[in-house]
Amino acid sequence: MKIHRFLGEFNFGKEEVELKDEKLVHQLASVLRMKPGTKLELVSSNGTVALVELIKINPKIAEAKVLKLLQSKGDDRAVALFVSILKRENFEWVVQKATEIGVTSITPLISKRTVKTGLKEERLQKIITEATEQSGRTTLLRLEKKQTFEEAANSTQNFNKSILFDESGDKVRSLGGGSESVALFVGPEGGWDDSELITARELGFAIISLGETTLRAETAAVVASYLGVSGL
Questions:
Q1: Using one digit for the tens of pLDDT, what is the confidence trace for 45-89?
Q2: Is this model's pTM higher than 0.85 or not?
Q3: Nearest one of 137, 161, 163 to 82, comparing CA atoms
Q4: CA-to-CA distance for 51 and 42, rounded, in angstroms?
Q5: Residues ≥6 apart with Cβ < 8 Å to 11
């Protein structure tokens, strides 16, 4: 039986923990219809994970007994995804899948050929939280403020490697494993402007192609995320 995992502000200093968040209690009581005796995992904001058992639950409040603290697995490497803002549903899908894959942060980009520039940050944060709980992560992906391509490209000095994905680049072989940090840049549906490719090369970016076929921007973002996190 699957044990559900939830993130929140929890204090595991005592044998029992009180759940006061109205949305969480509603989900437990009314959506999932959990009863006393149900086991679940709670993740506090500092990454501590606890296996707990519900001892009291009603539509307003829930209490649980802490059974044991679990070993938390953090992010293996820092993988930052810089991706051009896409249509709302496409960008939300990228955020969800990048969270599940294990990306550390996402920075929405406004490139020369970006069409959409608006974002609903509150909804994106909800998607991040739900995807984190579903995937079993213990750390939330950071949603950074949107930046222009030039701003983002010039802010990557602290990364061990910066990669811009474009069909004109070298065939992908390896992004480098280990614990090194990597910045991944994925452009809009219309591709990168020539001036952006020049800027990336001048800054020492690796220009890499994801294959012979033309991928949709959201597909490229997810493939790049997987390669970055896995170090393939």
A1: 777 889 999 999 988 889 999 999 887 665 557 999 999 999 999
A2: no
A3: 163
A4: 7
A5: 17, 44
**CATH of residue 153:** 3.40.1280.10
Q: How many helices (H) and strands (E) does the chain have?
A: 6, 12
Asked whether 44 and 11 are in contact (CB, 8 A), the reply is: yes
pLDDT in tens, 17-45: 999 888 899 989 988 999 999 999 998 87
Give the Cα separation of 81 and 158 in Å (integer): 14
Greatest CA span in the chain, whole angstroms?
A: 61
Beta carbons of 184 and 228 less than 8 angstroms apart: yes
| 113 and 30 assigned to the same domain | no
Reference 8, options 18, 21, 17, 26; nearest CA is 21
Alpha carbons within 13 angstroms on the beta-carbon side of residue 109 total 31
Per the structure, the complete domain to which residue 13 belongs is given by 5-70
**Last residue of a domain, which of 44, 70, 96?**
70
Half-sphere exposure of 220 (CA within 13 A, CB side): 28
Report whether 29 contacts 57 (CB < 8 A): yes
Query: From the CA atom positions of the chain, what is the Rg in Å?
Result: 20
- CATH classification at residue 20: 2.40.240.20
Count up the domains in the chain and report the number. Answer: 2
Q: Based on the fold, state whether residues 173 and 213 are members of the same structural domain.
A: yes
Find where tokens 């929140």 sit: 8
In whole angstroms, how far apart are CA 131 and each of 5, 89, 101, 150, 226?
Answer: 11, 15, 10, 30, 15
Neighbours of 197 (CB within 10 A): 18
